[in-house]
Amino acid sequence: MNPKSTYIELLRIAADFSEDEINTIKKCIEVKKYAKGELLLREGEYSDTIIYISEGLLREFYYTPPEGATETVYLNDFESIYEDDTYTSWIMAEGNFVYNVRSFLENTPSKCYIKAEEDSVVITMPKTDLDFLLGIMPQGRKILGLFYEKALIEYERRLELLREKDTLIRYQKFIELYPHLHQRISLKKIATYLNISPRHLSRIRALPIKK
Questions:
Q1: Helix 3-14 crosses helix 140-163 at what angle (to 10 degrees)?
Q2: Which structural domains are found in the chain, ordered by start?
Q3: Which of 45-49, 69-73, 74-78, 136-140 reaches the highest mean pLDDT?
């Protein structure tokens, strides 16, 4: 099944759209490919597109200049020199919708970046087209509900992990929630997602599993 067909089938779960409505939705989405390391969103840009991951892995992160820095630095696609000063907000794989929530909802510049951690295939729907669908389709709100529901679930999962004081259990819960992610992304990026130092995370990974 091609990416657009998979996407449409997912929307059909949310609502019983007619064939005419489905054809209209198809005109509002586009398949795009991003190479590993390419940025889909930069700090200062507006997150005005709902992105669905068909293949690959995306990460949202923010950049904090090192202590003593006197100027603002904006990262470009291949400036990996700054990776040690980035902190992960979320990591998403296939089947997820992604966007910078605050920028999207408040129509403000993003304070974060979204980057392809693997070669990725995504489906995009601009906010303007989403607004168009909401205006002409009674069931369009169910699409919006699907997008927001996914974001809220991931937000709550992150909070659940950070509320766990035992860092070993925090890491184990991460593996349970996202069993394949730890094999697809660096230890440093997982550590910043879990608010654990990379050195400490490396150490606790070798400890026996807690029941």
A1: 90
A2: 3-132 (2.60.120.10)
A3: 45-49
DSSP 109: B
Residue 148 has pLDDT above 60, yes or no: yes
**pTM for the model:** 0.87
pLDDT at 1: 63
Separation of alpha carbons 59 and 198, rounded Å: 17
Q: What are the Cα distances from residue 194, in Å, to 90, 145, 164? A: 10, 28, 10
Calpha distance 104→48 (Å, rounded): 6
Map tokens 């995306």 to a residue: 58
179 vs 116, higher pLDDT:
116
Q: Shortest CA distance to 113 belongs to which of 153, 158, 74?
A: 74
Token reading at 58: 């995306």
Helices (H), 118-197: 127-136, 140-163, 167-177, 187-194
